[in-house]
Automatic annotation (TrEMBL):
Keywords: Hydrolase, Membrane, Protease, Transmembrane, Transmembrane helix. InterPro entries: Peptidase_S54_rhomboid_dom, Rhomboid-like_sf, Rhomboid_protease_S54. This is Rhomboid family intramembrane serine protease. One of its GO terms (molecular function) is serine-type endopeptidase activity. It is a multi-pass membrane protein. GO terms for cellular component: membrane. SUPFAM superfamilies: Rhomboid-like. Gene3D superfamilies: Rhomboid-like (1.20.1540.10). It is found in: Membrane.
Length: 195
């Protein structure tokens, strides 16, 4: 491997670490502030379906969590799946993230139950949908292999798109997953058009 290639890989990895660390740092800072200063009051900035004020939650939902166990449960899958999304191209992460936040958030706002919906799990399920379907859309060996690996490691999460435990936004999971699939379709078309 050429020295320039190693340098590019190291540079890309550093960028990816900074992006993921920044997202996670914001989530933790917001939750600490919510716990210490606002006593849980920031949760009302989540998505409130079919209320105009709830539209702001489309952008804010991934950064708000109900408590520290909720945030801890989301941190590792966010880092792992987020990094796998950007593994081939960091731009894929941004396309997937914007699509999941906007399209998935709009789905929650339009169709979810009337309560505040918060948490990064919509993004996590979106990344899961992206990774599981991208290889199929691309019809590439590497993409399908990654889809199989992600499906084996995280496939059991898929049941989270169905109604289950009270207080868990299964709608956020469902619309996150579906918007991740949509993002995978967009990215696979972009990749094919470049080839």
């Amino acid at each position: 491997m050429k020295k320039e290639n190693i340098g590019q890989i190291a540079s890309d990895f550093k960028t990816q670490v900074v992006i993921l660390a920044s997202f996670v740092a914001i989530m933790w800072i917001v939750e600490i502030a919510d716990f210490v200063v606002f006593r849980g009051g920031l949760d009302r900035f989540g998505i409130l379906p079919r209320h105009e004020i709830g539209l702001r939650g489309i952008l804010l939902m991934p950064f708000l969590h109900g408590n520290f166990p909720h945030l801890i449960a989301n941190t590792i899958p966010f880092i792992t799946l987020g990094w796998l999304v950007m593994l081939r191209n960091t731009l894929d992460f941004w396309i997937a993230t914007v699509t999941i936040v906007l399209v998935g958030g709009a789905g929650v706002w339009l169709f979810a139950s009337p309560a505040y919906h918060i948490g990064a799990s919509g993004l996590i399920f979106g990344y899961l949908g992206f990774l599981m379907l991208r290889g199929i859309f691309e019809r590439s060996f590497a993409g399908i292999a990654l889809s199989v690996i992600v499906g084996s490691a995280y496939g059991s999460l898929i049941w989270g798109v169905l109604p289950g435990r009270p207080g868990v936004s299964w709608e956020g999971h469902l619309f996150g997953f579906l918007s991740g699939v949509l993002a995978a379709y967009f990215v696979s078309r972009k990749t094919k058009s470049v080839l």
